[in-house]
Hints:
It is built from 25 helices and four strands. By secondary structure, the chain is mostly helical. α10 (195-203) packs parallel to α12 (221-227).
Amino acid sequence: NLPMxxxxxxxxxxxxxxxxxxxxxxxxxxQMRAHNIEVVQEFNDAVSIIIEGRLITPYEQNSMDALYExxxxxxxxxxxxxxxxxxxxxxxxxxxxxxxxRNKERLKSFLQNSAIDDALFFRLLSMYSWGGEDFFENDDxxxxxxxxxxxxxxxxxxxxxxxxxxxxxxxLVSQTKSSELLSVIADLEPMQFHPDMxxxxxxxxxxxQAMQEKFFKQKKPKVLAALSRNANLxxxxxxxxxxxxxxxxxxxxxxxxxxELFELLKSHVTHLAFNETxxxxxxxxxxxxxxxxxxxxxxLNHSLDVxxxxxxxxxxxxxxxxxxxxxxxxSQEILLEAYxxxxxxxxxxxxxxxxVEILYQLQLDSRYERFVKTNAAFGRHIQxxxxxxxx
Length: 391
């Protein structure tokens, strides 16, 4: 039975079958000694507790089974014990001892230790020197990078290969909703070799204000361009980006709008019309401007309000109508009406909101067959019906 705490094991002799999992054997023994617990790997009369480690040999398994049958000993799993050991580590003392000893191997073994918590892992990581090289450029960096990816990657068991490739970090950036984790990745020394990954972090909605400001100060064009498309860009940076026309247009198109931001970005009204967070009131205001470019952009907006779509249709020229008929936000009622005129069929074949019975009709026409086959909604329908493509 598992002891409630390490005090229950003090002054006792424990027999380890197999190996530790999170700690290496030397570190495991040192941690146990620090708690006044003796670890042996051969049975003797002082033994009162048995630890079930990993990689137990058949010979050890037989010995362990025999001891279990006596009902004289408590059995503890290595995972539970290592968790207790990790929880008991005094982080400040450990970091100081690692700093003084400058023992890179010991630091690395702790970074590879799955039992320590993330807070300690991050503190240890900040001590690690990458030597000016990339994530997988030498053996030490490779081990630390793999440990990092293994710790934070969701469902790593489905994709073990990413543990040993930079794509592991790329996936982590797109997976995570943790600003802290993104911030740690952004500050890793090898990130200097990966501007694309820096841009991906800058674009993430979980890139917090402190990170955004840090990226902004670096003035890297690719990263600034990504930052301008961040839906959660801070107000202070919106004001900075308004000084550059291209960046301001990207902000207007992509930011999560508030009434305050809507007013602030009105000088880029055409790009605002593309923004999918426009409220009904904002769309109405843009509609009333009556500017052709603004109206056309609204016709393409995937969060177009049904009522606004109907008003646009009344004032639309052919180009605007085609944009509306391709837009999946347009109501099926409008699309059914549009189907009556053959010139609209190409646009309707591309629209994911076009009723499926119309898509079946359109795919029979060789001019539109390819559009229907690449229409994601039709693909999902075919899959769900499991009927294969109609020839």
